[in-house]
Design brief:
The protein is mostly beta strands and 910 residues long. Strands 22, 23, 24, 25 and 26 form a 5-stranded antiparallel β-sheet that branches. The protein has a 5-stranded antiparallel β-sheet with strand order 41-40-43-47-46, with no helix packed on it.
Length: 910
């Protein structure tokens, strides 16, 4: 059998027990293996790490040495959280106490924290987890007292509170502990009973079965979700698996068939559930496993076949890479052994080997795709099989040419008889580079193995695949090697746009959604890229943003473009120019949806409860206002999230959000202005004017004026901050407005400063007006140029434009004398007005009862009832000058005629 010998130690039972974890995998795919190992004085708890799927391992690192505590550690358990921090708990070998230490992760390594005492007194075989609110829980038992205990800590293990000292029906054996919703489930193998103790402020219990063997009980628990939980335990007829569907437990499924089968351990990978256990075949103990997908269990597969030594313990760790990882100890030699297997329902090939020509899938064996988002697959992968077969293996070299562009995918090896002595060794080469050496030890038995390369080894036409058999075991027979190549499609295309956060790839509810709170953005393509010429983005104001791209391995070698995030303005499209592997330039326009945060939050909240829409594919979420006290973990309903602000005081606060999907957590912080009190505003009623006094923290949205109960006018003042500086260049005919933000309908719209060029061919009129506006129809900023007289009259301006700034200018140039002008360059007239929210303007005829409603942009409204007001007329006089043909001479227009008519007109205005 192909497995890896980690070390041979002198410590008995270094990897016990099956209810306790000994293997974990970080979010970056690093495997961490823990064991009890002899130290300088006594027994230590140490760990090794592997960054290549278990092929090679580091030296031992001490998580706990005898010098740290007064006694040797006994049983221990570990838990890895979303920050890759590892929580360690153990009992001392005398059974006198339970201890705890946190290993804090940073930059690929762990630092040992302070040791804290959880319990002083008899307790053993602890297990550890985190509750949904972040609290740490530890459970343990002591068989001689018929009791189990549980403790929790709200301060990362500094202080512990005992939550249970529960009497059991008989001697308790192994226990396990998991979070369930906001509760804790404490699973106890209590003699003949399998019991769940449920904590939700107090304890309740649930008996799953009461027909188990009284002694030697082993148990292991796997939680896939709150509605999919598995418990495996040994029974009088073998290993039995109990399944919880969210409301009830089933009657159990038989996994094995021998009373001596023990030590089950559960894990999950992609859509599969796997179970590993110590199996007895009537003469030997071996490590065996089965996998389940869509409710169907595959056949048993043995990882060991040792006639000399039986196996003490098996432990399993889940992986997102389509594999299971397991470690066990040989009972006689104390060999610590590691192995991995690519799992499927048939135990033959990884699931991705089995598809071709599909439109959508989520079975890419890549750790990043723990974020369970099914994206559009714009390529139809075909697996090309290169088979090498020898009925009688001999030392030889076999080569196959590559005729189709693609990547190296994986291999499978089968040997009918491994031989009676020696070993068979073969090397696998791709494009002349050694990719894998396989050694098959002679054991007079069948051998099979599969291996996944990772799709980052590019294979081009004229490359070669080579299998070199460099050594053959005595009396071996039928060696078959299948090497799989995945071919690429003819045309390069983008697959999706995503977000990198804390090293994990996170996608949205659509395939091209980007979030400014991510660390990086990525654009994934369906095959490798040779080089990148440019990556630009179009802003909603037609601004062009340039990025400095990095080419990285993604699903394939060099198939991913990574760029820094950008938040100064909203982006609507990526424009990418790149070269494919043939050197041909390709250009792509990718429409994108750009959000500042992973949920759509308003800048102002005026209610104690808020419902927002998440734009990520998430399974659960929680929130906090201090990063210490967290809400209960909840599941979104139609991607909507409920936030309770009732515990907060008014003012500017920070909301911390954590979104979970699979084992990946996306975190962000959102500034919120929270105000629930009445609007701070007042209206003073006069005879012919309404004076508004508005000083609330939340910007104003609109004012409604009612005459005798009927709506007479709606005023939409522009509410904004910034826009303080305007740069004018007459020679270049340009204007540039400074940064600012408009608040409109409880949304904030930011403007990034850009240069605007005046129209090149305006009508020959003496005065024009450039208006910097916010378009309420498109929620974007724009410059508008209209004809104007010096009094500022604006004609035919659409109602959806809110004016922020006015700039008057002339299209006539002074030539020779100040009194003669001709069309030419721009002359700014020195009239430059930044608009403020207008006062209430009303018009009445006669007398009316007046009422006013004032709205802020968050939807709050305040009503003012007014007095009867009277109409007040003002006379306006206008001088009109006409020539002999009755043409009106406009202000500033130069005429040399003497036959002019001067008329004074009168207009009454309120």
């Amino acid at each position: 059998m192909a497995y890896t010998l980690i070390d041979t130690v002198t410590t008995p039972n270094p990897t016990i027990d099956s209810n306790q974890r000994k293997l974990v995998e970080t979010t970056l795919g690093t495997i961490v293996l823990f064991s009890r190992v002899e130290g300088a004085v006594g027994i230590d708890i140490k760990y090794k790490i592997s960054t290549d799927g278990g092929t090679t391992w580091s030296s031992w690192n001490a998580a706990l040495a005898v010098g740290d505590v007064a006694d040797n550690p006994g049983d221990f358990d570990i838990y890895i959280d979303t920050n890759n921090d590892i929580l360690l708990t153990w009992s001392v070998s005398t059974g006198a106490s339970i201890k705890y230490r946190k290993l804090t992760y940073s930059g690929g390594s762990w630092s040992n924290g302070t040791i804290y005492t959880v319990r002083t007194g008899n307790a053993k075989i602890p297990c550890i987890t985190r509750r949904a609110n972040g609290d740490i829980w530890i459970g343990a038992n002591h068989s001689s007292t018929n009791k189990v205990w549980a403790w929790d800590s709200v301060d990362e293990g500094v202080n512990w509170v005992k939550r249970a000292e529960t009497a059991t029906a008989s001697n308790p054996n192994l226990t396990d502990i998991i979070p369930k919703g906001s509760d804790i489930w404490f699973i106890v193998r209590d003699g003949a009973e399998l019991v769940i103790l449920k904590w939700s402020g107090s304890w309740a219990s649930d008996v799953i079965t009461n027909t188990l063997p009284v002694s030697n009980g082993t148990v292991n628990v796997l939680k896939v979700s709150d509605s999919e939980i598995y418990i495996a335990t040994n029974t009088a007829s073998g290993i039995v698996l109990y399944t919880y569907n969210g409301s009830s437990w089933d009657a159990g499924t038989a996994i094995s068939d021998n009373v001596n089968d023990t030590q089950p351990s559960l894990g999950t990978s992609q859509t599969y559930v796997a179970i590993v256990w110590k199996d007895y075949d009537g003469s030997n103990y071996n490590v065996a496993y089965k996998t389940n997908s869509a409710g169907s269990w595959g056949a048993q597969v043995n990882l060991t076949d040792d006639a000399v030594e039986d196996t003490r313990i098996a432990a399993i760790e889940s992986s997102a890479s389509g594999k299971i990882y397991t470690v066990w100890t040989r009972i006689n030699s104390y060999d610590i052994v590691f192995d991995s297997a690519i799992i499927s329902a048939t135990n033959q090939l990884s699931p991705i080997f089995q598809f071709a020509g599909v439109d959508r899938h989520a079975l890419i064996p890549n750790p990043e795709f723990q974020w369970k988002s099914i994206y559009e697959n714009k390529f139809c992968p075909n697996l090309i099989n290169f088979e090498y077969k020898w009925d009688i293996p001999t030392i030889n070299v076999s080569t196959s040419p590559i005729t189709v562009y693609g990547c190296l995918y994986g291999y499978s090896i089968f040997m009918k008889d491994t031989g009676s002595a020696g070993s068979t060794i073969l090397n696998i080469y791709a494009a002349g580079v050694l990719k894998k050496t396989v050694t098959i030890a002679a054991a007079n038995s069948e051998y099979s193995d599969i291996y996944y390369f990772g799709m980052t080894d590019e294979l081009k036409t004229l490359d070669e695949l080579t299998v070199k058999v460099i050594q053959v075991a005595d009396n071996s027979s039928l060696l078959k090697v299948n090497i799989y190549q995945m071919s690429f499609p003819f045309k390069i295309e983008p697959l999706f746009v995503g977000n990198l956060k804390d090293g994990s790839l996170v996608t949205g509810t659509d395939y091209n959604l980007i979030v400014s709170s991510a660390d990086y953005w990525v654009i994934e393509f369906n095959q490798p890229i040779k080089s990148i010429s440019s990556v630009e983005a179009l802003g909603i104001n037609t601004d062009i943003v340039s990025f400095t791209p990095t080419l990285e391995n993604g699903l394939f070698k060099n198939s991913r473009i990574k760029i820094n995030t950008y938040s100064a303005l909203a982006l609507s499209k990526f424009t990418i120019i790149l070269q494919d592997t043939l050197g041909q330039s390709q250009s792509f326009n990718i429409n994108i949806n750009h959000s500042k945060y992973a949920s759509v939050f308003p800048p102002y909240v005026t209610s104690t409860s808020l419902t927002v829409l998440s734009i990520l594919n998430i399974e659960s979420y929680r929130y906090s206002f201090d990063e210490i006290s967290w809400s209960a973990t909840s599941s979104p309903i139609n991607n909507t999230l409920d936030i309770d602000f009732s515990s907060q005081s008014e003012g500017n606060i920070v909301l911390y959000m954590q979104y979970s999907n699979g084992s990946i957590v996306y975190s962000e912080s959102i500034p919120i202005a929270y105000y629930t009190s009445t609007l701070n505003s007042n209206v003073i009623f006069g005879k012919n004017v309404l004076e508004l006094d508005y000083s609330d923290e939340v910007p104003i949205d609109k004012i409604e004026v009612y005459y005798d109960g009927n709506l007479a006018d709606t005023i939409n003042p522009t509410s904004f901050t910034g826009f303080d500086t305007l740069v004018k260049d007459e020679s270049e005919r340009t204007l540039q407005m400074s940064l600012g933000t408009v608040y409109y309908k409880n949304n904030a719209y930011a403007y990034s400063s850009s240069v605007y060029s005046l129209l090149a061919n305006v009508a020959v009129s003496p005065y024009w007006l450039a208006l910097f506006c916010f378009n309420t129809s498109t929620n974007s900023f724009e410059w508008v140029e209209v004809y104007s007289d010096l009094m500022g009259t604006i004609q035919n301006l659409p109602s959806y434009l809110l004016i922020i700034h006015k700039v008057f200018y002339s299209t006539y140039t002074v030539l020779d004398t100040p009194d003669i002008r001709f069309p030419g360059t721009v002359l700014f007239n020195g009239i430059d007005e930044r608009q403020e929210p207008p006062k209430i303007a009303i018009s009445t005829e006669g007398s009316h009862d007046v009422s006013v409603k004032v709205y802020d942009i968050a939807g709050r409204v305040l009503t003012f009832e007014g007095e009867t007001i009277e109409t007040l007329f003002t006379n306006y006089y206008t001088l009109v000058v006409t020539d002999a043909l009755s043409n009106i001479i406009k202000p500033g227009q130069i005429h040399f005629e003497t036959d002019l008519t001067y008329t004074i007109t009168r207009e009454d205005r309120i």
